[in-house]
Amino acid sequence: MFHNGVSRTYSDSPKYIAEYLLLQYPKELEIVFSVSSTKESIIDTEKRIRFIKFQSFSYCYFAMTSKVFVTNNGGFAYLPLRKSQFVLNTWHGGGTFKRTGIETLKMNFFARKDLLLVAKKTDAILSSSRFWTEFATEAWLINPEKFWGVGLPRNDLLLSGDVILQSEVRERLGLHGDEQLVLYAPTMRRADNNPFSAMRSVAMDRFDPDRLLSAFCARFGGKWRLGFRQHPGAVSNENMYQENVINLTAYPEMQELLLCADALISDYSSSMWDFCLMKKPCFVYAEDLIEYAKSPGFLLPPEQWPYPIAHRFEELIAEIEGFDELKYQTRLDEYFTFLESYEQGDAASIVGERVAEKCCVKRYN
């Protein structure tokens, strides 16, 4: 049973583990994947994946009867799972940006109760770095022995350098010839840091796409296009998109966008960690950095991040035009070394084999 609790679509690390299992164990496993809408999901033509609607009767049934339950964020806290079930949390973020867990939930009884139930029922959780494991052990009240330091399966794609898929994605996005893509992907916001309030989107009203693209052309050369993708859980606001900006919010797989993007602009999103595994330019654009630092706060101070930081649009333009490639690469190397990154590009196979072992299956010959 696979559950993507962030976007509730067929994506993220659960997808890549499921596809590994389909390839290596095509006959032995029944694979169920929950989505928000079975009409919009990617349906396996060979019927090897059964897509079910989240929070439906089928969802509860399969969640409670599966041998292994894989989630990237919740979906099982209040379900009466069996003792023989194995619950794996892939989480949905690497790096050391936003704080999560018990510290951010002290004032909310139900969110705190949810976290305690999740901690009790979790058998294993993936980690992207040694630093993150040490933080999450205390923040999520999970025994350190339950952490698998193997990286995130979704990042295998970025480390693979799949040029064929990159070309296919570029064609889907309408990128022509030598056009380069800069992706703007801010994280979500919640009112008063309430874990049950609706996620707010980030508008582009202070963005000047033409000026931004001119800055990229001046610094990096060539032709550039701008794509905007808001957090999958944010409330949609079609009015935020400008005519010369590619709307990528509905694109089903974020990692494919990162794969073909040539530069990334974000704020506190873990997509920065994923993207920089490819050593491509990444910029932090965060007008509310001071407020965000107070609640929910950061694991590491932003000044210790390897990315150029801008608080205003004018500063962002200056950071792009003055981008120092050598300095950036050096800071990236120091960052990954300090955190002790576990990302090696083989997480899906490692996790997939452990899941198969929990299901007591062997490869089909």
What is the structural class?
alpha/beta
Classify the fold: give the CATH topology of the largest domain. Answer: Rossmann fold
Give the neighbour order of strands across the main sheet: 3-2-1-4-5-6-7
> Radius of gyration over alpha carbons?
20 Å
User: Count of helices?
Assistant: 13
Tell me the domain tally.
Answer: 2
Overall 3D geometry? Answer: globular
H/E element order: EHEEHEEHEHEHHEEEHEEHEHEHEHHH
Look at the structure and give the CATH class of the largest domain: Alpha Beta
Q: Which CATH architecture of the largest domain would you pick?
A: 3-Layer(aba) Sandwich
Overall pLDDT confidence: 89
Measured by DSSP, the beta-strand proportion falls in 5-15%
The first-to-last residue Cα distance is 24 Å
Report the sheet with the most strands, covering strand number, pairing sense and barrel closure: 7 strands, parallel
Number of strands: 15
Provide the helix percentage. 25-40%
Q: Return residue spans where pLDDT drops below 50 for at least 5 consecutive residues.
A: none
CATH superfamily of the largest domain: CDP-glycerol glycerophosphotransferase, C-terminal domain
Write a compact overview of the structure shown:
The protein has 365 residues and is α/β, with parallel strands linked by helices. Helices cover 35% and strands 14% of the residues.
What does this structure look like?
The structure is a single chain. This protein has helices spanning 12-24, 57-65, 109-121, 130-139, 156-160, 163-173, 209-220, 254-260, 271-275, 289-294, 313-321, 325-339, 347-358; strands spanning 2-3, 31-35, 49-53, 68-71, 86-89, 124-126, 147-148, 180-184, 189-190, 199-200, 224-228, 245-247, 263-266, 282-285, 309-310. It folds into two domains: 2-151 and 344-358, CDP-glycerol glycerophosphotransferase, N-terminal domain (Rossmann fold), CATH 3.40.50.11820; 162-339, CDP-glycerol glycerophosphotransferase, C-terminal domain (Rossmann fold). The longest helix has 15 residues, at 325-339. The protein is an alpha/beta fold and 365 residues long. It has 13 helices and 15 strands. The strands form three sheets. The protein has a seven-stranded parallel β-sheet with strand order 3-2-1-4-5-6-7, with helices on both faces. Strands 12-11-8-13-14-15 form a six-stranded parallel β-sheet, with helices on both faces. The chain has a two-stranded antiparallel sheet with strand order 9-10.
